[in-house]
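Service request form, structural biology core

Requester: graduate student, group of Dr. S.
Request type: structure prediction, single chain
Budget code: on file
Notes: please return the result as structure tokens.

Sequence provided:
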Amino acid sequence: MPARNNHSGIRSAYARMLPDMQALGPDAVVSSDQVRFTGEQVMRWLAMSIILLSELIFPLAMHAQGAPEAEQGVTVCTFVDGKELTVRYNRVPYDPKKEVPLGKVWAPGDSPMSVFTETPLRVGNAELPVGAYNMFFIPGRDNWTLIINRNVTAGSMYDEKQDIVRIPMPTGKLPQPEKVFSIYLGHIAPKRCEMRVDFGRSRADGMEFDEK
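Core staff response, request fulfilled:
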């Protein structure tokens, strides 16, 4: 299940949400009775705007602080109806001298991972409407806990009160260390995507996203 390290998933999702404005000339006038947006379309617009703004703001902030910019990873899973689930994250290099903090909330590169869904999902015992969310992990010896958090404000601190769901992911040992933090999404059933995480000698998997 190779990761797609580009913006094609987000761009294609954004393109599908845009009305066909290319048909309008520069002087065209659209009356209010010609425009109709559903609640789902509005939520998609807001979610995509947040993600696109964070893509612009985060690199600028890192550059201003003089910090090295981590390589960005993107992985996408497409359901049978064409709707996509997209995860973005920092592909930080593995350093055996700097193990992940056990029992503490953690994200690669100290920057939350982002997840965007074009379709309502069920994750564990929680429901995720269409939109954008942040993700974190709590690494452990026997399992990692995935946290999905509703706060996507750029630059904000992690707030446990904003957690939507926490789900344990069983871990195993890799025969060879994964040199960079990597997330993979696989389409394993018509309405199910599964997430796997590899980093160093650890693999966490079994995280399922079910389309409602």
